[in-house]
Amino acid sequence: MSDWYTNFVNSGVGTTISKQLGLPRPAVLRRYEPGEPLLPGPVVVGTAGGGRLRDTVTAVLRDAGVTVLSPVAADGSTDGEKLGAVVLDATGLSGPGDLAAAHDFLAPAIRRLRASGRVVVLADPPAQAETPAQAAARQAVDGLTRSIGKELLNGSTANAIYVPEGAEASLASPLTFFLSGRSAYVDGQGVTLAAADVPASGDPEKPLAGKVAVVTGAARGIGASIAQVVARDGAHVVAVDIPAAGDSLAKVANEIGGTALQLDITAPDAPQRLVEHLRERHGGVDIVVHNAGITRDKLLVNMDAARWNSVMAVNLQAQLDITQALLDDGDVLKPGARVVSVSSQSGIAGNRGQTNYAASKAGVIGMVRAWAPRFAERGATINAVAPGFIVTEMTAKMPFGRREIGSRINSLSQGGLPVDVAETIAWLAQPGSAGVNGQVVRVCGQSMLGA
Ligand SMILES: NC(=O)c1ccc[n+]([C@@H]2O[C@H](COP(=O)([O-])OP(=O)(O)OC[C@H]3O[C@@H](n4cnc5c(N)ncnc54)[C@H](O)[C@@H]3O)[C@@H](O)[C@H]2O)c1
């Protein structure tokens, strides 16, 4: 399944027709392909406010095989080579006046950005500022980055990373993610890092090698894509879905050399069955992806208890019960485990006809934030991914008009693909993402809803 309109306007005849009619032309996004370079061009790194991360950033980029240019070269004075990405290190801002340097650096650099380019802004977390002026300048980075995301064209994105003092070692994984094609549909977002013991990076093409991952709702849609991407990155996948989806579940599991486990995650004995399966067959689990989810839409005034209860049971209570069972077991959840919960843009913005669904998906965010400190104590992480409009069988059921509007009202003017959600989850599951904990990463193309 893919975005028909994007495919159409980028086809030969579609390009001509859309130009003549003045129709919007969403770009074909640069998506991750194993073996491809991290970026299609060099990166320019600039600073505003001191920039204590400049050397760290340069080392990360050089390790990733990226050419790093100085700001002078980005100013148009070299051979005019287009830029793959622009990175602004705005750590050390003391007040709004320091932001003038951000403008001076970004304006000429962004003019030279290639299609599907990347802008990444690094800053200190506003919540840890020592003065109101410092907090103002740090918070200004949020508005700056989100606005750049809205101004960029041709499939380019802008995201922010907030790096507290002492969390420098946590930067490599999120920085490379935001620069790479893995983050194609992540736009206008910010993640705040924590200090963590970050293991030495292994094979960048197989970052999940040797890991065991369980993915719920893996028989189709986003879950099937998560299973495929996590397996591509090296993990053995235990694919879970309801018995009624057994045939497609077996197909997904076989294709990736994984294991199928038929299990209704709302069954009273489901957490225990899952824990036992993981312990006995696989010696434990490293990665847990709570993806299974359902919708039962109705306006609240017309919603019966069955619709309310079933959505809460699958989307929220099962995630709580399974995670609790994994924690209670003692050793089934391996050291450095990664839990990723699928939330939704509806859980952030709310949605007409989806009080049950939005409540459940907002609940997922609350759960992740509450558990993050406990996970950090064991060197583990728990995060949420909130997809916006993703082209799947779930969204294919929507009426045409609502579906078309829903998929266009974002900075990239298109719906995301299941693989975009899957890549974000696989990134959070990496050992190197140890410093990303208790975060909510939207995969929504910078949707206007709930922004
Ligand atoms: N498609 C979107 O645009 C979108 C947007 C935001 C969030 N999401 C979320 O992403 C996740 C996947 O969505 P999708 O579009 O792929 O949906 P989907 O309906 O295509 O797939 C969901 C899968 O979960 C399984 N499932 C349902 N109940 C289960 C249960 N009790 N036990 C085990 N498995 C169960 C289903 O059988 C199905 O295979 C869901 O959590 C959904 O809420 C989707």
What key phrases describe this protein's structure?
451 residues; alpha/beta; Rossmann fold; seven-stranded parallel beta sheet; six-stranded parallel beta sheet; 16 helices; binds nicotinamide-adenine-dinucleotide
Concise summary:
The protein has 451 residues and is α/β, with parallel strands linked by helices. It has 16 helices and 13 strands. It folds into two domains: 31-192, Rossmann fold (3-Layer(aba) Sandwich), CATH 3.40.50.720; 212-443, Rossmann fold (3-Layer(aba) Sandwich).
What is this structure's SSE topology?
Blueprint: H1 4-9, H2 12-21, E1 43-47, H3 54-63, E2 68-69, H4 71-77, E3 83-89, H5 99-111, E4 113-123, H6 132-151, E5 157-162, H7 172-179, E6 190-192, E7 212-216, H8 221-232, E8 236-241, H9 246-255, E9 259-262, H10 270-282, E10 285-290, H11 305-328, E11 333-342, H12 346-349, H13 355-377, E12 381-387, H14 393-396, H15 400-408, H16 418-428, E13 440-443
Parallel strand pairs: 1-2, 1-3, 3-4, 4-5, 5-6, 7-8, 7-10, 8-9, 10-11, 11-12, 12-13
Helix pairs in contact: 8-16, 10-11, 11-13
Bound molecules: nicotinamide-adenine-dinucleotide.
The site of nicotinamide-adenine-dinucleotide has 27 residues, from α8 and α14.
How would you characterize this protein structure?
By secondary structure, the chain is an alpha/beta fold. The chain folds into two domains: 31-192, NAD(P)-binding Rossmann-like Domain (Rossmann fold); 212-443, Rossmann fold (3-Layer(aba) Sandwich). Helix content is 41%, strand content 17%. The protein has 16 helices and 13 strands. It has helices at residues 4-9, 12-21, 54-63, 71-77, 99-111, 132-151, 172-179, 221-232, 246-255, 270-282, 305-328, 346-349, 355-377, 393-396, 400-408, 418-428, and strands spanning 43-47, 68-69, 83-89, 113-123, 157-162, 190-192, 212-216, 236-241, 259-262, 285-290, 333-342, 381-387, 440-443. Strands 9-8-7-10-11-12-13 form a seven-stranded parallel β-sheet, with helices on both faces. A six-stranded parallel β-sheet has the order 2-1-3-4-5-6, with helices on both faces. Strand 4, helix 6 and strand 5 form a beta-alpha-beta unit. The structure holds nicotinamide-adenine-dinucleotide. Nicotinamide-adenine-dinucleotide binds at residues 216-217, 219-223, 241-242, 245, 264-266, 291-294, 314, 342, 344, 387, 389-390, 392-395.
